[in-house]
Design goal:
Blueprint lengths: L1 H46 L2 H4 L13 H5 L1 E3 L4 H6 L17 H10 L4 H25 L4 H5 L10 E4 H6 L3 E3 L9 E8 L3 E4 L1 H6 L5 E4 L2 E6 L11 E8 L9 E8 L2 E2 L3 E3 L33 H10 L19 E7 L3 E6 L2 E7 L11 E6 L1 E9 L30 E9 L4 H9 L5 H4 L3 E9 L3 H14 L2 E7 L5 H14 L3 E8 L3 E2 L1 H9 L7 E4 L1 E2 L25 E2 L3 E5 H12 L9 H13 L5 E4 L14 E2 L4 H12 L9
Parallel strand pairs: 17-18, 17-20, 18-19, 22-26
Antiparallel strand pairs: 1-19, 2-16, 3-15, 4-12, 4-16, 5-6, 7-8, 7-15, 8-9, 9-10, 9-11, 12-13, 13-14, 20-25, 21-27, 22-25, 23-24
């Protein structure tokens, strides 16, 4: 009996073991089935030609290429020998390569990662830039009218336009503003709001026991730009939304906002309470929100006792008038939007109601469309004091195609300083002013200093075509092929660093803006005061600056969680040594470079990182002017082309005097 029990126990153990083995085998087969497609895809990638997937391909100098090296396109004169090795100016930049992994696999991996908003924004900008470059080739093949523009046939626009309500309705409630707006332009609308109607709000069904009907009366007036992407709404340069029956606040409000590529900014709401009378909150001296009557607020600022006391001592009571909400259902209104220096000013019935400050990246000249939507009947629209030519389409007024303004070829030997100038596509006048002024300095002519403009692409095909012709002729423009916007200026700064250490061999690299005037000789003397072979970060330094959490330059906690910024030099003009630039490029290539939307703060952050391992000399000087100009300046900022010509004239007379018109 005991022997039989032992045999049964051993058979049970064998039975359980066989089941465990079968289970493990089945699990292995499942894993193979799941992972086999990825393995097959990788194996396919590994078998393709290396030319299609090479990453960090070694060049003759032993340096590895990078994203910017593959994508930055410089238009410069080359020798016949160099021409064989250079890509054609009319050839689109090569696609990005990611080593022995295809771009599709990498893209899938990136989607799985939690990319920051800035990373996604940059990825979109590169994608749109590649598309814009391809369209530029097609645009040229069609026989553009760029030559007619450059030959002095500017696009003429009317100084005023008007439209009746019937005309507005026929054009899908849109009115075209041919050359956009300018400071001083105004748009006047005459309309009548509809009476409120019921709308069903599903979210309220749960909280109101099935009653999800609300009364709504609202309309939207928008200044719009050109579409960046087909299938998406155009950018909203100004979104003005009066809500007569209110919203979640249950009281009438006027909301202002901007929107780019379906991404809304922070709403600015006026609800009847006046905004603060602080200098930082005023827009051209106007309150952002005026006061109007509200039933839920009783003004208790002056009690009866104080009122009696004022009468007793004979103090006159200052009369105060509080107006009602400016829009009433079924009652006609006259609304005027005026473009000021610092923002838009909205008047209704001749009374100022709200002001909305301009937001970075949204310019008046791009406001080429007026859209009106919602519960309103428009009777007529008038736009006056409009620009008669679009600044972006008037290059013939500023571009001087003369041989003497052409850039010299890049020197093959070491140079002391490379200056990268950040510029926008349509800043023809600014670039031409620099060519005719401080770029004529003797040190630049002697090839001891090299200067290049770094320009991204624009959604406007015409602008890109003219930019390309400008670059072909002058040979001093580096086109970084992404669609330009303020938050991505930092990518141009990285391109400047790479260009300064790869395309030229410079001891120092300087970054400036195209509204910065540089006293080249003074900057060189300041650099020479620093002991050689010492890492240097020079400019107008900021210490212990805190991020602004509100206002035009607001930074969210997600973007910058720290309480203070690292020491950083103001963006209009600063200098770093080449070893710092090499560190930045190295960090960028291995994807460990932290990028922030404010490029000057980013540079301070990168220098601080380098300083943790290699001592860096921080050199501060107020003469790298952040705002305007000061006597004996090194750099002057916010200088118009006219001021640059004046500053250059003063320097030729031996005087470093400002030209503050």
């Amino acid at each position: 009996m005991m022997k039989r029990l032992k045999n049964e126990a051993s058979s049970v153990r064998r039975f359980k073991l066989s089941y465990v083995l079968l289970g493990l085998a089945a699990l292995y087969l499942v894993l193979i089935c799941v992972k086999f497609p990825e393995f097959l895809e990788s194996a396919t990638v590994l078998s393709v030609d290396d030319a299609d997937v090479a990453l960090d391909v070694e060049d003759d100098s032993g340096e590895s290429t990078s994203r910017f090296h593959n994508n930055v396109k410089e238009y410069a004169q080359v020798t016949p020998e160099e021409e064989e090795n250079e890509a054609s100016p009319h050839k689109k930049p090569p696609k990005l390569h990611y080593g022995r992994i295809t771009a599709a696999i990498l893209k899938r991996q990136n989607m799985e990662r939690n990319l920051s908003i800035l990373d996604r924004m940059a990825d979109e900008a590169w994608t749109l830039g590649s598309k814009a470059w391809e369209e530029l080739d097609k645009y040229e093949e069609k026989g553009i009218e760029v030559n007619s523009i450059l030959e002095g046939k500017p696009e003429s626009c009317p100084s005023w336009v008007s439209s009746s309500g019937e005309q507005i309705a026929k054009t899908d409630h849109m009115m075209f503003l041919p050359c956009g707006l300018a400071a001083g332009s105004s748009i006047t609308l005459i309309g009548t709001p509809h009476y409120a109607h019921h709308e069903y709000v599903p979210q309220l069904a749960k909280t109101r026991a099935g009653d999800a009907l609300v009364l709504v009366s609202q309309f939207m007036i928008e200044l719009q730009g050109l579409k960046s992407v087909d299938g998406e709404d155009p950018p909203k340069i100004l979104h003005l939304n009066p809500r007569i029956r209110g919203d979640w606040s249950h009281r009438p409000v006027i909301e202002h906002n901007t929107c780019y590529r379906m991404q809304w900014g922070t709403a600015h709401r006026c609800d009847g309470m006046p905004s603060k009378y602080d200098d930082d909150m005023l827009v051209d001296g106007y309150l952002r929100c005026e006061k109007w009557m509200r039933n839920d607020i009783v003004d208790t600022r002056e009690s009866k006792i104080f009122s009696w006391f004022d009468r007793f001592i004979g103090r006159a009571k200052k009369p105060e008038v509080t107006w009602p909400f400016p829009f009433v259902e079924g009652r006609m209104f006259v609304l005027t939007i005026r473009a000021g220096i610092d923002g838009y000013h909205i008047n209704v019935g001749g009374r100022h109601v709200t002001s909305f400050p301009y937001r970075t990246g949204f310019t008046l000249e791009d406001a080429t469309g007026l859209a009106i939507r919602g519960d309103v009947d428009i009777h007529s629209v008038y736009a006056t004091s409009l620009p008669t030519s679009h600044p972006s389409f008037s290059p013939q007024r500023v571009l001087d195609f003369s041989e003497k303004w052409k850039s010299l070829p890049l020197p093959k030997s070491h140079i002391q300083l490379f200056i990268g100038v950040l510029s926008a596509t349509n800043h023809f006048a600014e670039r031409m002013a620099i060519r005719k002024t401080w770029m004529r300095a003797s040190a630049i002519k002697s090839s001891d200093i090299a200067v290049r403009f770094f320009v991204a692409l624009n959604p406007r095909k015409e602008l890109n075509a003219i930019l390309k012709k400008e670059a072909d002729y002058f040979g001093d423009i580096v086109i970084v092929p992404f669609i330009d916007r303020y938050e991505l200026v930092v990518l141009k700064t990285i391109a400047i660093c790479e260009y300064g250490v790869q395309n030229v061999t410079a001891a120092y690299i300087m970054k400036c803006d195209d509204d910065t005037f540089i006293r080249v000789d003074a900057v060189l003397r300041e650099i020479q005061r620093v002991p050689p072979r010492r890492s240097l970060y020079m400019g107008n330094l900021n210490l212990l600056h805190r991020p602004l959490r509100t206002g035009k330059w607001a930074v969210s906690f997600e973007e910058w969680p720290e309480d203070v910024y690292p020491p950083y030099a103001n963006g209009p003009g600063y200098i770093i040594t080449s070893d710092i630039a090499k560190h930045i490029i190295s960090q960028y290539r291995n994807q460990s470079l932290r990028i922030f939307k404010m490029e000057d703060v980013s540079m301070g952050m990168w220098v601080e990182s380098y300083n943790s391992s290699t001592p860096v000399q921080y050199s501060h000087n107020w003469k790298f002017c952040q705002y305007g100009c000061m006597e004996d300046y090194f750099t002057a900022h916010y200088q118009s082309p006219r001021q640059m010509y004046c500053l250059w004239s003063n320097l030729l007379k031996g005087k470093a005097h400002c030209c503050n018109f």
